[in-house]
C-alpha cells in the first residue's frame, strides 16, 4: 500500500510537459504507422500493375510468334515466285529472331497442391498433343473437351470433368495460361486442317473458306 501511495504521488508530481510528451509521441507513432501502411497499399497496386503489364507482354510475344509462324506456313507462300518467297521467309525469320530476344517472365507463386495440379494438367494436354497425328479428328474432339473444361461459357460439346477438377486445383494465373495454350493448339489445328483441305481440293475449298469468312 505504501508503495502504491508513493507511486501515485510520483505521478501527481510529474511535470505536465512529460505527460504531454508521451501523448504526442503516441500520436506521432500512429500517424507514422498509418503513412507507412498507405505507402505499402500504393506499392501493392503498382506491383500488381507491373505483373499485369508483364503478363500482357508475355501474351503479346506468344501472339506475335504464332502470327509469324502462320505467315511462314500459309498457303499464299505457294502462290508467289521463288524469289519473293525467299525474301518474305528471310523477313519472317528476322522478325522471329527479334521477337525471341524479348525475355519476359512472370513467376506464379504456388503451394505444393497447385504445383502438382499444374503438372497433372500439363501431362494430360501433352498426352493428347503427342497422339494428334494418330487420330486427328478424334484428338481434336479431345482437345475441345479439355478447352470446354476451362471456359466459363457454355461449351458447344462435352467437357472433360476430370480435367476440369485438375484445372480448378491450379493457381488462377496457371488456369489462364492453360486456357490460352488450348486456344492456341485449337487454332493451329484448324489452320492445319485448312491447309490439308486446300492441298486436296484447292478450288472448291478456297470458295468454301471465303464463304465461311
UniProtKB/TrEMBL annotation:
Residues 33-67 form a coiled coil. This is BAG cochaperone 2. PROSITE patterns: BAG. It comes from the Eukaryota. One of its GO terms (cellular component) is protein folding chaperone complex. One of its GO terms (biological process) is negative regulation of protein ubiquitination. It comes from Gopherus evgoodei (Goodes thornscrub tortoise). PANTHER family: BAG FAMILY MOLECULAR CHAPERONE REGULATOR 2. Keywords: Coiled coil.
Amino acid at each position: 500500500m505504501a508503495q502504491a501511495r508513493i507511486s501515485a504521488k510520483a505521478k501527481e508530481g510529474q511535470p505536465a510537459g512529460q505527460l504531454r510528451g508521451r501523448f504526442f509521441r503516441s500520436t506521432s507513432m500512429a500517424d507514422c504507422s498509418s503513412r507507412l501502411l498507405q505507402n505499402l497499399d500504393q506499392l501493392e497496386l503498382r506491383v500488381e500493375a507491373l505483373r499485369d503489364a508483364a503478363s500482357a507482354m508475355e501474351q503479346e510475344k506468344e501472339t506475335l510468334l504464332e502470327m509469324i509462324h502462320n505467315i511462314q506456313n500459309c498457303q499464299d507462300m505457294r502462290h508467289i515466285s521463288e524469289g519473293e518467297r525467299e525474301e518474305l521467309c528471310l523477313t519472317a525469320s528476322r522478325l522471329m529472331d527479334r521477337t525471341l530476344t524479348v525475355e519476359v517472365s512472370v513467376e506464379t507463386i504456388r503451394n505444393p497442391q497447385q504445383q502438382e495440379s499444374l503438372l497433372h494438367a500439363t501431362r494430360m494436354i501433352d498426352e493428347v498433343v503427342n497422339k494428334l497425328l494418330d487420330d486427328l479428328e478424334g484428338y481434336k474432339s479431345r482437345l475441345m473437351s479439355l478447352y470446354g473444361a476451362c471456359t466459363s461459357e457454355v461449351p458447344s460439346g462435352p467437357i472433360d470433368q476430370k480435367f476440369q477438377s485438375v484445372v480448378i486445383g491450379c493457381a488462377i494465373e496457371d488456369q489462364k495460361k492453360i486456357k490460352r495454350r488450348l486456344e492456341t493448339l485449337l487454332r493451329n489445328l484448324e489452320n492445319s486442317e485448312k491447309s490439308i483441305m486446300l492441298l486436296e481440293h484447292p478450288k472448291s475449298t478456297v470458295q468454301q473458306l471465303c464463304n465461311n469468312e
